[in-house]
C-alpha cells in the first residue's frame, strides 16, 4: 500500500490522466498505484508520463533494461511490484 493515498480513478477529471489510467486498467487489470499517486497533481502526472515516454522512444535504453530498472527502483522504495 502506498504511503500517500492515490486518487479514485472514477473521480479523475483531467481527460489525459483518465485516458492513461483507463489504458493501464485495460492492459493490467487496474491502474498502476504510482500513477494514482501522481494523478493527485496533473502537472506531476504529465511530467512522470513524459519521462517514461521519453525513455521509451529514445531508443537509448532497451525495453528489458527499462523494466528491470523500474522494478529495482520499486524494490528500493519498498513497493510491491
Attribute tags:
81 residues, mainly alpha, 0% strand, Carboxymuconolactone decarboxylase-like domain-containing protein
In words, what does this structure look like?
By secondary structure, the protein is mainly α. It has one domain. About 65% of the residues lie in helices and about 0% in strands. The protein contains 4 helices and no strands. The longest helix is centred in the middle third of the chain and has 17 residues. The chain is globular and about 35 Å long. The termini are close together. The model has no long low-confidence stretch (mean pLDDT about 90). This is Carboxymuconolactone decarboxylase-like domain-containing protein.
Quick structural overview:
It contains four helices and no strands.
Number of strands: 0
In sequence order, what are the helices and strands, one letter per element? HHHH
Net shape: globular
User: Radius of gyration in whole Å, from Cα?
Assistant: 13 Å
Percentage of β-strand residues: under 5%
Largest sheet: none
Structurally, the number of domains stands at 1
**What share of residues is helical?**
55-70%
Which secondary-structure class do the elements indicate?
mainly alpha
Report, as a whole number of angstroms, the end-to-end distance: 11 Å
Mean pLDDT: 89
Q: Spans of 5+ residues with little confidence (pLDDT < 50)?
A: none
Quickly count the helices: 4
What's the SSE blueprint?
Blueprint: H1 15-28, H2 33-38, H3 42-58, H4 63-76
Amino acid at each position: 500500500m502506498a504511503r500517500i493515498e492515490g486518487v479514485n480513478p472514477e473521480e479523475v477529471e483531467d481527460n489525459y490522466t483518465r485516458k492513461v489510467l483507463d489504458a493501464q486498467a485495460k492492459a493490467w487489470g487496474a491502474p498502476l498505484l504510482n500513477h494514482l499517486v501522481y494523478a493527485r497533481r496533473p502537472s506531476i502526472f504529465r511530467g512522470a508520463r513524459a519521462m517514461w515516454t521519453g525513455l521509451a522512444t529514445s531508443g537509448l535504453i532497451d525495453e528489458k533494461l527499462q523494466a528491470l530498472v523500474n522494478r529495482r527502483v520499486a524494490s528500493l522504495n519498498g513497493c510491491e511490484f
